[in-house]
Amino acid sequence: MIIILEPNITQESKEFKDLMEYLKRFPHLQIKVMEHKGVTRSLIEVHLIGEDYMVSQEEIENLPGVEKAIKVTAKYRLLGRHGALTDFGFEYKGLQFSQESFHIFAGPCAVDTYENTEAIFRALKEVGLCCARMGAYKPRTSPYDFQGHGKACLPWLFDLAGKYGIKVIAMEVLAPHHIEEIQEALEDAGHPCGIILQIGTRNAQNFELLKAVGKQQDFPVLYKRGFGLSLEECLNAAEYIASEGNTKIIFCLRGVRTHLGDPHRNLVDFAHVPVVKRLTRLPVCIDPSHPIGSKVKAPDGIRDIYHVTAQGVIAGANAILVEFHPQPEKALCDGPQSLPLTELPLFLEFVQKVRETYLDLKKLVNEGKA
């Protein structure tokens, strides 16, 4: 059961203390108190973990300070919408992330040179974007491929981000000590930007890493669906993060591994955007670069990456994680799927038109219901 308290209630309130006293009559239950500071409201949730059939939902809801009580059946209890809970999102570095917001994270999967990084940040600033994707740590299938520069690039990467007004960088981490390295480098640089820790598809069920990013409160987390995992498995993996205390999570769809997707790299799963939004309170991101794996064009002249981006945006995606590079043919990682930086204005205009269409269709359908 999840007990949602009224917005004005704090842990110092008499109503909260009375509720805790009431719950002592059920010593077999584990009680977990979660405080959420969202975009639209802040609230306290009290989670009862264990066999709660003896707890009267009606009696709980009649207690002072209780807004509602919800019986939970899904395993992802902290992140789930459970048919009633609303999305409240979170704020980070002055930006709002919720199921209503929309952001674009553009850049390379892995940072290669100082000059290329500066060119990318400069281009983002020129088109008005303040979010980027930049990998310092990069897992590769072959041990001989470029693995990223690691912590060595963080000082100049953060310096350039501050220079060009980049507010947030999505950066993959592969081990708990990477979090510490990012924290130290940001501190040394004077915190010129924010970081969203990315859990890549290869670490989608690395439970110790999931716990580590969940225990820290400095950075939100972008969790990528495992390319060989069911949606249920991934939602439960994201729950590992939340169960450690960090509920500032963005769920990212990036395609699933199956030969049915050939000749694309993976099978696009963006039809799951509304599914994740219905099942959870998480903002949903799409990564169109990895499932396609190339810059091939359809007969209509539009790249496949653009087409699948449109599919995700029209389905209600709240963010796009897309690869751009000044010289894709010379990129040390994922060059074949990286869009040329000169194409960034066109991509943004394309996405803007699709997003406007989604909002128009959303309005049309909801007004039609009335």
Automatic annotation (TrEMBL):
Keyword Hydrolase: no
GO MF term list: transferase activity
Domain DAHP synthetase I/KDSA: 100-357
Coiled-coil parts of chain: none
One Pfam family of this chain: DAHP_synth_1
Presence of keyword Transferase: yes
Superkingdom assignment: Bacteria
Gene3D superfamilies noted in UniProt: Aldolase class I, Phospho-2-dehydro-3-deoxyheptonate aldolase, domain 1
UniProt keyword terms in alphabetical order: Transferase
SUPFAM superfamilies linked to this entry: Aldolase
Span of domain DAHP synthase ferredoxin-like: 1-73
Protein name: 3-deoxy-7-phosphoheptulonate synthase
Organism of derivation: Caldimicrobium thiodismutans
Organism classification: Bacteria, Pseudomonadati, Thermodesulfobacteriota, Thermodesulfobacteria, Thermodesulfobacteriales
